[in-house]
Amino acid sequence: LANLFGGGYNPANDMPMNPQKGFMLTMLVFALISLAAFYFTFISTKERVAPPPKQRTPLLTDLKDLINNRPWIILFFVSTLNLIYVGAWSASMAYFFKYYMSVKTLKIFGFNTGYDLFSAFNVFGSIIIILVLAFPVSNWLAKHFGKRNTLVVCFGLVAASIAGFYLCRPTDAGLTLFFQFIQSAAAAPTMPLVWSMYADAADYSEWKNNRRATGLVFSAVVMGQKAGIALGSAITLWVLGKAGYNQEVMQQSGSALTAIRYSMSLIPGAIALVTALLCIFYPLSNAKMDQIQSELSRRRQQDSLNIS
Hints:
Layout: H1 2-5, E1 9-10, E2 15-16, H2 19-44, H3 59-67, H4 70-100, E3 105-108, E4 111-116, H5 117-134, H6 137-145, H7 147-163, H8 173-187, H9 190-209, H10 214-242, H11 254-264, H12 266-279, H13 286-307
Antiparallel strand pairs: 1-2, 3-4
C-alpha cells in the first residue's frame, strides 16, 4: 500500500518513491478500517452481565477491589510482559531480515519465487494464527487442560520458538519459517484465552466483594498492554543503540549484528518464558470458576426476585 500511494517502489532504498505520502495514506486507510470496525463492534455488542441494579460504588472502592484481586494482578503482569516481548520481537524483525539474513527471497523446493522473505515471514505467521483462531482450538484446550495450564504451555512454546531464532544462520530461511510456524500456532490460543480470563477476574471480584467493575478490570489491563508494547519496542532500540547500530550503512558491525540476533531471539524469548512462569501462579481453575459462576447466578436470581 505504501508503494501504491507513494508513487511506486524505489529499489535504491527499498522504500516508496515518496515514503512520507505513502506511509501517511497507508495509515489513513488503516485508521478508517479500524474506525469502521470499532463502531461496528460498539453497536453490535450487548452487555451480557450487568452490575447489581442498586450498585453505586465510588471509584476509590473499585480501585481498592482491583488491587486486592489476585487473579487480576497476575493477568495484568502477564498481559504487560506479553506485549513487552511482542514489541521487542516485532521491532527487531526488520533489522534481522535486512542486515542478518543473506537470503532475501522465498524459495519453495528450490524454486525462487522472488517474493520478499520478510513479507512471506509475516504473512505466513498471520495465516497460521487465523487458521488456529478459525477453529475452536482455544476452547477445546481450555476445557480439557484448563486455561492456566494452556497458557503456561503455549507461552513456553512461544519462548522456545522465539529463542530458537538465535540458532538460525543467515542462509536458514526455512528454519526461520519453521520457528515462525511454532510461535504463531502457540501464540494464537493465548489471545482469546487471556481475554476470557479478564472476564473471570471480573466475576471473581464480584463474587468476593459483592460489587462488579467489569469496565475497570478491562480498561486497567489495556493500560498495561499499551505500556508493554511501547516498552518492548524501546528495548530493541536501546539494545541496538548500545551495540553501535548505524542506519547509514548496509553492513553492520559484528556487535550490531549480535545485538540484532539477541533482539530477535534470546531477549524476547526470555521475557516470554517469564510470562509462562508467571501464569503458574494464576489461582482460578475451571472448577473454581464453575463454583463462582454458580454462586453468582444464584445471587442474581435472588436479586431479581427481591426487585420484583
